UniProtKB/TrEMBL annotation:
The keyword Iron does not apply. Gene3D superfamilies: E3 ubiquitin-protein ligase SopA, Homeodomain-like, Tetracycline Repressor, domain 2. The keyword Transcription applies. It comes from Actinomadura viridis. Residues 42-61 bind DNA. InterPro entries: Homeodomain-like_sf, HTH-type_TetR-like_transc_reg, HTH_TetR, Tet_transcr_reg_TetR-rel_C_sf, TetR_C_Proteobacteria. This is AcrR family transcriptional regulator. Pfam families: TetR_C_7, TetR_N. Keywords: DNA-binding, Transcription, Transcription regulation. One of its GO terms (molecular function) is DNA-binding transcription factor activity. Residues 214-318 are annotated as: Disordered. Residues 19-79 form the HTH tetR-type domain.
Length: 318
């Protein structure tokens, strides 16, 4: 007798569908809140973004305020997952330490500067006073978990002698601060996307500073010195080459500006001289015309006087 075919439990399908729909609503809500801000966003637009009816949104989440809180927490969870995945690059404590740290730093910066992460920070700054709960959740479940995970990886590197003896949590906090510290200004408080080559440069600089403080110790207890300044491919050389290139570009732009100003000044001077020449020619022409008119006037007066004298002489002769 053939075995009876089993079918999925109906209750499980309904539950899975409800969870998927809730996640779609939260994702759509975060998108709309990030685009419009809390005050300008409306549940009708969120429902349209999620592809559900407006009453469906209220069936899953009671009101707009609850929707905002839950959407922020869900977005923070995704950001934290990306950060934790980046930290996993340090799970094995062997290999090129600098390269591993730079790769981890680069991946952490990519997650930090992702549009979702930037939007999350913008909303936390804008709505933190009205909704303090998401901010506390992000700090506790988010930053705290990432710091703890990174501290665990650094602790293994310390035990392996790859880093000098130090408090792993302090080292983790310092490493994250070196990475994210410059980014608020570089992203214009989350409004600007940062090019990937700029993220790599920040990661290299952060790792260089971190290893100066936490690099492995030499026999006398001092940290192992970093690559010599000026060594080919070292961060110092790359930074110096970047600064030199920026200096040359700035000098070129300044020279072009000065040349343009010189050309403009010469053009204005030439125009001024031409205008003065034209004015002088106009004045000379007017003077010649006036002299001609005066001469003609004097000649006419002379002829008139001669005519009057001739008429007077003829009258006297008669």
């Amino acid at each position: 007798m053939a075995a009876a075919r089993t079918s999925p439990e109906p209750g499980r399908d309904v539950s899975r569908g409800r969870i998927d729909k809730r996640e779609a609503i939260l994702d759509a809500a975060f998108t709309v809140f990030a685009r419009q801000g809390y005050a300008q966003a409306c549940v009708k637009e969120i429902a349209k973004e999620a592809g559900v009816a407006k009453p469906t949104v209220y069936n899953h989440l009671n009101d707009k305020a609850t929707l905002f809180r839950e959407a922020m927490v869900a977005a923070a969870g995704r950001v934290v997952a990306e950060d934790l995945a980046a930290v996993e690059a340090l799970a094995v404590p062997d290999g090129d330490l600098r390269a591993r740290l730079e790769d981890t730093g680069h991946r952490l910066l990519q997650a930090h500067c992702h549009e979702r992460s930037r939007a999350l920070r913008r909303l936390l700054h804008a709505e933190g006073a009205r909704f303090p709960e998401p901010l506390e959740v992000v700090r506790g479940r988010g930053a705290g978990r990432v710091t703890e995970a990174l501290a665990g990886r650094l602790a293994r590197l310390i035990l392996a002698g790859r880093l000098r003896a130090a408090d792993p949590e302090t080292a983790a906090e310092q490493f994250l601060a070196l990475l994210t510290g410059p980014m608020e200004a570089r992203t214009a408080m989350g409004a600007r996307a940062v090019p990937d080559d700029e993220l790599r440069a920040v990661a290299r600089a952060a790792v260089d500073t971190f290893l100066r403080a936490f690099g492995p110790e030499t026999g006398d207890g001092a940290p192992v010195p970093p690559e010599p300044r000026g060594a080919a491919g070292s961060p110092e050389t790359r930074n110096a080459e970047t600064r030199n290139a920026e200096t040359r570009n700035a000098e070129t732009r300044n020279a072009e500006t000065r040349n343009a100003e010189t050309r403009n000044a010469e053009t204005r001077n030439a125009e001024t001289r031409n205008a003065e020449t034209r004015n002088a020619e106009t004045r000379n022409a007017e003077t010649r015309n006036a002299e001609t008119r005066n001469a003609e006037t004097r000649n006419a007066e002379t002829r008139n006087a001669e005519t009057r004298n001739a008429v007077a002489g003829s009258a006297a002769a008669r």
